[in-house]
């Protein structure tokens, strides 16, 4: 999906920790080309929101994605095949990242990145 300057990237944030989720949403909302259209605390709810809201990019906490089954991640993809999944990681667990990247996840970004880096990862994921 190529975004024009007038088209905002629609993002669904999936994060189990409320304070982290709220912080990420606040940071992303500072970027004029990014619009957070929904928030979720788990993958099952994210599948429903993905179907209902049709986001361009879905950010998913890597720890949450690792605990959820591949079938649940598949349900998210089936809800909106055009959405791109950006995995948000806290620890450098290469095997977890590699396994999840094999689950049709477009890219990953470290949670300790600054908001500009996270926004850039969202933009790359949306293209």
Please describe the structure with a list of short key phrases separated by commas or semicolons.
127 residues; alpha/beta; Rossmann fold; five-stranded parallel sheet; globular
Account of the 3D structure:
The protein has 127 residues and is of the alpha/beta class. It has a single domain, classed as Response regulator (Rossmann fold, 3-Layer(aba) Sandwich). It has helices at residues 18-28, 43-53, 62-67, 70-79, 94-101, 115-126, and strands at 9-14, 34-40, 57-61, 84-89, 107-110. It has a five-stranded parallel beta sheet with strand order 2-1-3-4-5, with helices on both faces. Helix 2 (43-53) packs parallel to helix 4 (70-79).
Unreliable runs, pLDDT <50, ≥5 residues?
none
For the record, give the distance between the C-alpha atoms at the N and C termini, rounded to a whole number. 5 Å
Question: What would the average pLDDT be, to the nearest integer?
Answer: 83
Overall structural domain count: 1
SSE order in H/E notation? EHEHEHHEHEH
CATH architecture field: 3-Layer(aba) Sandwich
Q: Give me the count of strands.
A: 5
CATH topology: Rossmann fold
Strand content: 15-25%
**Main sheet strand line-up:** 2-1-3-4-5
Major sheet characteristics: 5 strands, parallel
Count of helix runs: 6
Q: Supply the CATH superfamily name.
A: Response regulator
Judging from the principal axes of the Cα atoms, what is the shape?
globular
